[in-house]
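Support reply, case 0932

Customer input (verbatim):
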Amino acid sequence: MFKLFKYLKPYWWQIVILLFAIAVQVWTTLRLPALMADIINDGIVPGNTDYIWRIGGQMILLALISAVASFVSSIFSARIGASFSRDIRAAIFTKIISFNMSDLKDFTTASLLTRTTNDVNQVQSVTMMMLSMMLRSPLFCIISIIMAIQTAPDMSWIILVGVIGILGSTITIMAIVVPKFKLFQTLLDKITLVTRENLTGLRVIRAFNNEKTEKKKFSNVNSELTSLIIFISRIMELQNPIVNIIFNGTTLLCSWIGISLLSKDFAYLGNMTAFAQYVSHVMISFLMLSMFFVMLPRANVSAYRINEVLSKKNKIAWRAKTNGQPSKTPSVEFKNVDFRYPEASEKVLNNISFTAKAGETTAFIGSTGSGKSTIVNLVPRFYEATDGEILINNLPIKEYSKTDLIAKIGLVPQRGILFSGTIKSNIKFGAPLASDSQVKKAAEIAQAKNFIEKLPEKYNSHIAQGGTNVSGGQKQRLSIARAICKNPDIYVFDDAFSALDMKTDARLREALKEITTDSVVLIVAQRVSTIKDADQIVVLDNGKIAGKGKHYELLKNCKIYQEIVKSQLSDKEYTHELKLAKEAQNA
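Our regenerated output:
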């Protein structure tokens, strides 16, 4: 919890004002019982009306000052707490954005969402309570005890009885409830995960008529969380009746002991009244502190989870500034690259070497799990190669700053991701300064122009979160247009044509040739027709290169490639391809 207090530093002057307001409130509030005792002893008992009016006026003035101080402290407490939580949320978001793919695997998406929202709210609530009580409750408690003892020393033992009662009940409740708070946050993560899974996979759930199974899964988690909340609430609610019993018991004791003392000296009436008020202040202060200490363990669990994210060291260290001068001619070169995922025993890539040159298309093909996507994910450094070296524009990838490297790459992932906004904002996502003509040109090359022009608002048409209001093919074409609009040195298409029909695929690749004469094009594909015309095809099998060359060369010499082509063509078409391969070889 204390590690997060560094986010309070910018608001130190507001904290000073808050503490001053609290000090004023405590002083004015604790003066009132003493003045009331004076009115009773020196005004009411002897019948001194002038004294009653004078001291009464002072009491009204002090009450007004106390109210203003309380108002000021409440405003600054809320303002500091809200700003504090805002800064923590921003820090968590910034940290998450800086994570690479391997870093994100250490946390689930549902857990990161809960940490950014619920956990921050818990820390905010306790921080606000701490700011408002860090001075108020201890001052109220200490000064009230001192003044109570000075006012009526014969009754001071009552305070000790009340404090022991409240502390005992609080410690018992904390011992029962605190272990449950960590479980509560874990279950909250779980219910967020199940909800998110069902929302994102709603089509699949309905397609397989699996609503009952998912309802049962959610119900089990929900019931478990509900049972835990009920248990915690029941134990926590025990505190109110216990405190009421202690509070009323001390009040009764004050009245009983005070009345017995009044029979000896009626002038003791003012002291008894003041003592009763001081005792109530002590009890309320301890009640507030006990509430704070009950909430603190839960906030500590939340703070620990937040610090886990904020203190997470990125597995990939980037240079602050690019070290060296990249070549002006784009290129991508892999030299004996190996890769294995963290904590995995087997390599995903083994001794991968190839060179992709400017103006050429390098394609990757192979069976599922052969390592195609892993190769292109190493290019923007989403993962770090285990061994070997990757050079971008003849400069080792580790020598680049993050900004400089990503500026050279236009990536279209397997799954087209769109953001809430407009078609234009999505296409300009990687090039915010692009003109309208550049946006339209990118859409035209990506074969997205036709469907965009048919929309009522055209390029200003709304895109829902995740692009749920457009088809898979339209989403993919907009993702391709986004990469084209960036005009990068290196285009990376990770199975980015899979949702396109054959004609659109062919037109798009033909249009790409016109704008990629000075760029490197890397394509991961499943369809042979997509990569048939590539300048270099890299055939992968179990993370190793099984063949490298052009379509007809591989068709003649690479058995794995032959099997892939044969699986996608009829016997007649395959025979024809083999014939063309022989003719190409003879030529």
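We compared this against your earlier run and they match. Two observations from our side: Residues 330-408+490-549 form a domain with the Rossmann fold fold (CATH 3.40.50.300). Residues 49-98 form the longest helix (50 residues). Please reopen the case if you see a mismatch on your end.
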